[in-house]
Design goal:
Keywords: Hydrolase. Residues 52-178 form the AB hydrolase-1 domain. The protein is of the alpha/beta class and 298 residues long. The protein has one domain (9-294): Rossmann fold. It contains 10 helices and 8 strands. It has an 8-stranded mixed β-sheet with strand order 1-2-4-3-5-6-7-8, sandwiched between helices. The longest helix is centred in the middle third of the chain and has 16 residues, at 174-189. The chain is globular, with a radius of gyration of 18 Å. The N and C termini lie far apart (51 Å).
Length: 298
């Protein structure tokens, strides 16, 4: 079985333990996975009575599996964990006519209201999902208790792509495609090339094969910075120290976040990690994320 069809065992096991639900998205559906808590029914508001649910939004060309190394640790805290495949990625249908993050908040908000009722929840977004989470919290603030950005782009305008990625769809040989995927993982996602084992490659390939939004460009703008000005809840940020999107601009990023979010609660750096920080350093990331989620609300 090659990397274009193989599902890593960790993904298969975690998926088998998840509760799978769907909510409308145009004529199709958003697919949600849920773990932990005391169980829930649609709109019932059941689950942990003490801790709010946490909603995890994955990055571009991804799926819920961007969080495969973090879900169990979050669920072990007693939280109910929700991780959708965002519209246009994974198993979810695209928003009709939608090409970027700005079309996703409305069906996502509708799905969250259907699944969680009036319960408040913590919202965590990685990369493209961080930008989407910011747009969601700005447009539909009801229910969003706090926002945690993870490696999120769109904090300022970019004149060109900061990272050169290789095209792979036109390549005929599996070996050539694998080489391109490995290059892209190292160029953008991971700091340590040794972290790109067979399971990591297979997970990445499964995700990029199901990306139906290839022309998105909002991440090259300041869309997130603009949205954060309208976010009423506390905003935390966690980034890998070697995130290629902000290499050499860490101080500038912290300043942009603090100026944009009225209730900015701090930027935390994870050492020895790149853009996909929660995958490369899961233990450190999980501890930091739980600390952010447990912090007293100001």
């Amino acid at each position: 079985m090659d990397e274009e069809t193989r599902i890593p065992e960790a993904v298969a096991q975690l998926r088998a333990r998840a509760r799978r639900m769907t909510t409308p998205c145009g004529d199709g559906h958003i697919v949600w996975h849920q773990w932990g808590g005391a169980g829930s029914g649609a709109g019932s508001g059941a689950g942990s009575a003490e801790l709010p649910p946490v909603v995890l939004l994955h990055g571009g060309s991804g799926s819920w599996t961007h969080w495969v190394r973090n879900i169990e640790a979050l669920a072990a805290t007693g939280r109910q964990v929700w991780a959708p495949d965002l519209p246009g990625f994974g198993d979810s249908d695209a928003v009709p006519g939608g090409q970027d993050a700005d079309t996703i908040p409305e069906p996502l908000h509708q799905g969250l209201r259907w699944l969680l009722g009036q319960r408040a929840f913590d919202l965590v977004g990685f990369s493209f999902g961080g930008m989407t989470a910011g747009l969601l919290a700005a447009r539909f603030p009801e229910g969003v208790r706090r926002l945690v950005l993870v490696g999120a782009p769109a904090m300022w305008m970019r004149d060109e792509r900061p990272v050169r990625l290789l095209g792979w769809r036109h390549l005929e040989s599996g070996a050539a495609r694998e080489q391109a995927h490995r290059h892209n993982l190292q160029a953008l996602m991971l700091h340590d090339a040794q972290a790109i084992d067979d399971d990591t490659l297979a997970l990445h390939v499964q995700n990029v094969l199901r990306d139906r939004l290839p022309r998105r460009r909002l991440s090259q703008t300041d869309a997130l910075a603009q949205a954060l000005r309208r976010v009423a809840c506390p905003v935390h940020a966690i980034y890998g120290r070697h995130d290629m999107l902000y290499q050499g601009r860490q101080a500038e990023l912290e300043l942009a976040l603090s100026r944009s979010a009225p209730r900015f609660a701090g930027l935390h750096w994870i050492e020895d990690a790149g853009h996909w920080v929660q995958y490369e350093q899961p233990a450190r990331f999980d501890a930091m994320l739980v600390a952010c989620l447990d912090a007293p609300l100001p």
